[in-house]
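Long-time lurker. I teach an intro course on protein structure, and each term I like to show students one example going from raw sequence to a predicted 3D structure in token notation. This year I'd like something fresh instead of my usual example. Would anyone be willing to generate the tokens for the chain below so I can use it in lecture? Attribution to the forum is fine with me.
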Amino acid sequence: MARTFAIPAANAPLRRLEILSAADLRRTLKRLASQVLEGVSDSRHLLLLGIPTRGVALAQELARELELICGHPIDQGSLDPTFHRDDLERIGTRLVEATSLPGGLDGRQVVLVDDVIFTGRTVRAALEALQEWGRPQRVFLLVMVDRGHRELPIQPDFCGRVVPTSRQESIALCLEAIDGEEGVFLLRP
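-- Reply from a regular --
Happy to contribute to a lecture. Here you go:
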């Protein structure tokens, strides 16, 4: 089902095509949580770090799913890589969010969580920022959508959906707590 709506910043009407419904998104989160647990040796050493902005909310949702499966709380926080980006002149700046880490990183199994992987530059910056906070045992990457167009050799370890896009298109992850609706949408000019 395609709906038209306006993005306030651009004010240009876009077509919105549903990629994942609310139910599909919930099923995908459960699948990703199971895959993460299969990939780590001890869930008590697991740390989810969301990359602002949507990756933080996605990490919170994933932490809730993981807690339901493994029966104990999963540490989660956020990691803002803004100051490590090499493409700020192209993408522009946004307000920097504080990095929030529940304890140290040394010896932890860290899952970087983001909503969409595109060029790979955000993840590269996040990996660089992560080094300033400690030395994890292992770092994984989890994304809800891989839209292609990589400029760096970075691939997610866990991926909800691969959605080939054009450079003019974009992907929007909507979560109930933030948007009042849930789903993943392809935005086309």
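Some talking points for your students: Strands lie at 2-6, 13-20, 46-50, 75-78, 109-117, 138-146, 158-162, 170-174, 183-188. The radius of gyration is 16 Å.
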